[in-house]
Design a protein that fits this description.
Distance between the termini: 50 Å
Shape: globular
Radius of gyration: 25 Å
Largest sheet: 10 strands, antiparallel
Low-confidence stretches: 1-76
Helix content: 10-25%
Number of helices: 5
Number of strands: 22
Oligomer: single chain
Strand content: 35-45%
Amino acid sequence: MLQSLNEAQETPQSAKGASFATEITFFQRLTPGHSNPKEVLKRHARCVILDFIEWSRPSDGSTGLTPTLKIMTIKTCTLSRALLIAAGMLTAYSASAQTTIFEDNFSDGYGSINGTTPTTDLTGTATWTTPSYVGQNGGLLYGRLAGTGAAASTGYLAYTLSAGNIYELSVDIAGAPPTSDTSQYAGIGFFSTVTSTTVPYHQQDSGNPTGAWMFLRTQNTDANEGDLSFRPLGTGGSAIDSTFDVTVSRNYKLVLNTSDTDAAAGTQFSLALFVDNVQYGTSYTYTDAESSALLANVVGVGLTALIASGGPDITFDNFLLTSTAVVPEPGTFALLAGLTAFAAIAMRRRK
């Protein structure tokens, strides 16, 4: 599916100094949250023509239509503006399309999901590892498929992280009024070694899990309130919101950035929690050592639940893991770096 988008030529502003014209052809992908290259160039140069953009639906699992090819003509720019153009392009073209790694809507009938494959599996080899009592029914996943007894679980899909990506892990957790004061919780995470699927995540690794996760915990029957927390280091930390309404169904998302590298401070990953696309709390920035440990320790992504005897069922839906590579492609980076160098040399020769 292709369609053309013609951009109108802008009137170049007159400026002192020499001008140059060059035509650049390159591949580029955009993701939500990054600057629009056209706007970057307009703002800094005001002398750009975008001849055309071809849009296509990616074949690599990405969602939505993505601009995959641009032919850009830059005209009548002063050399100083050319430097600004190149710098803006280096920033704007540093991300690729979002790719779905796992997706599961739990709509494959009734029964345990242990050993089943998710609806979408980019790896081609992943299956759920869960206790037998974690199962699907009517398009929902239940932490306790039948009965009213206590049920604890950590279920996951095997997956290892890579540097240079933004991972988004999300799930819908159905709201339900608690029926007792007994604490119970539901959560998702980037899990380190799971020693037993029949215990909740906070009890993994002898009570010292090292993955990054979040959870929603009931605590106050009368007010229908609970704790909303996330644990970037697996343990420690405190609740972000201790009066969180647990009766409302919401989407919970962890955004893990494994691309934030500081040459002086070393690799610094970051983690943030979003509820219905609104950030809760502040982002956590990992140290260089913590970043390396997280990259090495995570073995999967998944769900965890702790259900009290007689407590309400915990249900999940729309489990999703995506990644966005944010490292520039070598060819694109070299081309834009060359443009910067060309403009700098030309400017120096004029002096």
